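We modelled the chain as a single entity of 567 amino acids. Its sequence is:
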Amino acid sequence: MRPRITATALAAALTAPVCGVQGASSIAFQNAEYSKSAPTKQNGVSWPSLDTEKSTYVYVHTSDEIAQPTEFFFGSNVPVYVAGDFFNTDDMSTKMATAGQSFLRYPGGSSANKLLWDADYDSYPYFSGYSWMTADSKYSMEDFVVTINNTGATPLVELNAALSLVYGSDVGADYFIQMHEQLLAYGCDVAYYAFGNENYGGWEPPYGDYPVNGTLYGEAFLVAAKALKKAYPKIQIGFVGEYDYTSVADDSITPASAPAAASSQTSGPRRGASQPNLGVVIDDWMEDILSVDGAADAADFVVIHEYYFKTTSSVPTNVELLEEVGQLSDMRDGVADFFAEVVPEATVPPIILSEFNLVQLASAGCGATLQFINTIWHAEILGEAIQGGDVAALMSFSWADAAENCSNTGRGTRGDYGLVSYGSDTIEDGTPTTQFYAYALFNLAFGDSMVNSTISQGTSTKIKTYASTFSDGSVGIVIVNEDSAAHTMRFDGLTTGAITANGWVVASSDPDAEDPLSADGVTWNGETPDTFPLETSYTPYSASASEGEVLEVDVPAYSVTGIVVYY
């Protein structure tokens, strides 16, 4: 068993400088003081002219703020099962900074319901089968704190809800307080805790060994929330929820009872509850949690997970995959409907999408995780999430995970959830995957206030723009081009005086292929990126416009472009 903090050490920790959020907002995942300066202007190379047949006119309303981005949209998971020395290297810190990683979740995924941070398997023998998680070679809670200090990110920690369900709510609550105090001893004052991980599913302990349903989980959540907030009032805690209880992909599958559960549904792919393609999902999960008196009011946020494409029977087309972005509004509406039905007097708390990716690796879309389409899709998820306000925070799964062979190779033979590779037999550990570059582009070209941008002419549904301003007055624009043709982009509303712009274009590594979106790599301003940070390793493109003129740049087919306009 690992040593716990002493009373003397705790007293010292409470007065010492700590990582984490200090004085968190009363509403989860808000930061009214979020501020971001534009990257340093560089003397770039002339913006490339392309053979374009299409023009798109965009008016940027720089004074019309429509949304408030925060650091909580640029997060990922850092799992305990990755090697302990993987995250805390200069190379990995540089790559995390390049991708703007500012919100990190530990221990990442289902590990939450298995990990004993203190390795106390004598007191809690149910978890002894997972003792490998606390081996010296694995990524410990202390290692996580080092990562937080290295990156300056805000931490979110998952609690072991299974411990409460196995050993009792009061035992669990005491354990969680000790965990928080150990984090303080490590120098980290954690404000955000999530109670478990996907406990609605039969793949999560202790399902099948001990009774699990929404009522029992809700009662345990309430005890933990009350105890943690009484001891440390700044703590905010959320429960694991769903947003849809009706949508089952295979109508031929009927509900069936399962061991040790009040009721359950053995289903195929189902929206609203991230799950393996075949697995038990406990019925009435959200209704039963919210029916626990006080649970809704104790929740500072609701945790939602979604691996968007789950179907095993057919290989997804590019069009099908890119349409999946639209589910964000379903999440907010679905959670709100549950609250309206069960606890209409309660305020619906913010939603965090703390695990997501384009496809589930067990699906027929497995290989798309490593294809260029995942760059475009992640750029759209980031832009739409900030603009729509349906969720308050995003955490990709995962910063690093593990490469897998795809059972269906229709979109490639290998899949990997990670923003950087890990455990691949063909790619070096730590190599950025395609989705990494969507985050890198937003980190450079998206500011601290989202402003309105409207397409006034050339209304292609395959062009999306996300405009913003920085604290220094510069303007940032991210352009997603899903079209098979290059576009000339003409931006109006920017030239109150002469302007210059730097830009970065992420495109397919195989633009001349029959399907460039299926390429397994990217180019960054025409080069294969292999040196980091990108900002100082590769020369940006440059463009300019005089007062009263529109800013004009060409964007390639199937690309994501970031522009920063300087005055």
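As a brief sanity check on the tokenised model: The chain is about 25% helix and 25% strand. The CA atoms of residues 163 and 175 lie 9 Å apart.
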